[in-house]
Amino acid sequence: MSKCARKKYIKTNLRQMTMETVESQHDGNITASLTESKSAHMQTQTGQNSIPALAQVATIAETDESAESEGVIDSHKRREILSRRPSYRKILNELSSDVPGVPKIEEEKSEEEGTLPNIATMAVPTSIYQTSTGQYIAIAQGGTIQISNPGSDGVQGLQALTMTNSGAPPPGATIVQYAAQSADGTQQFFALGSQVVVQDEETELAPSHMAAATGDMPTYQIRAPTAALPQGVVMAASPGSLHSPQQLAEEATRKRELRLMKNREAAKECRRRKKEYVKCLESRVAVLEVQNKKLREELETLKDVCSPKTD
DNA sequence: TCTGCTCCCCGTCAGCGATC
DNA sequence: GATCGCTGACGGGGAGCAGA
């Protein structure tokens, strides 16, 4: 079995174990199964195959080749099970409602709702981008660009937010390069062609991390000297206006790029939630272990008190 | 220094459920 | 029924580490 295949097979088995764990949680057997799962997971992370849980997986993976084919056969069934699994947020919130002290994952107020009411009318279908440092850049109607720093780290040096189309990009495709902080302290966008996005005059010039701290977000304007509409923004063509096959192809490419971009962001968010979920479960395990220990001690104490003394 | 392994992160695809 | 968001699965790449 190749390294990659073995790795995936182990992953799959671990995942199956985790799934059983989650299901058993819903049945109320939280502590034991969770602990098992956690230990299995942690053991795998450390690569120590002498520990029982991993040894079990390793045995499956390395000595029982027939299990692999069975695993392939069962993959559809497993997939069916997995596909019905509720989201992490859902599971966590269910757990939270059962047990006080477990923080809930907040329903995210989407940036679209909160800060960008006009996004729906914008040409760029997804108007919120995130830089590699977590900054959110939103393009609002009229070419206004908003930058939001979720953290307090501020922006150091040059960052690039580049959106390109794989293959041959259609004319008009958005290419945005974001220079977060230039040497002279100003912030600029470089959009398609030679357009420069400059800070809105009405906005007070403030460091981005300050803006994040105060909630004030600087706004930016795409300066397009020759066009009424900012050319760095891809305007959505109405279906009726698409005639030639080339235009249709461009539209399809644009849609695909948009979908990929959205999915990319969704995957990031999903992974973030998953991490949060796992952290929460781990902290719960810790709490329950302490609780369990206390109860055992209490039991022993009661036993000592109640049992008749023997010589 | 090189090689192999493991872990982690990311982008993409596929499939499902929810919503319109 | 179409669209959208979410998430598991998959494959790739980089970083760190241990052994040759």
TrEMBL record:
Pfam families: bZIP_1 (PF00170), pKID (PF02173). Its main location: nucleus. PROSITE patterns: BZIP, BZIP_BASIC, KID. Keywords: Activator, Coiled coil, DNA-binding, Nucleus, Phosphoprotein, Repressor, Transcription, Transcription regulation. Residues 253-304 form the BZIP domain. It is found in: Nucleus. SUPFAM superfamilies: Leucine zipper domain (SSF57959). InterPro entries: bZIP (IPR004827), bZIP_sf (IPR046347), CREB1-like_pKID (IPR003102), Leuzip_CREB (IPR001630). PANTHER family: CAMP-RESPONSIVE ELEMENT MODULATOR, CYCLIC AMP RESPONSE ELEMENT-BINDING PROTEIN B. Belongs to the bZIP family. This is cAMP-responsive element modulator. It comes from Theropithecus gelada (Gelada baboon).
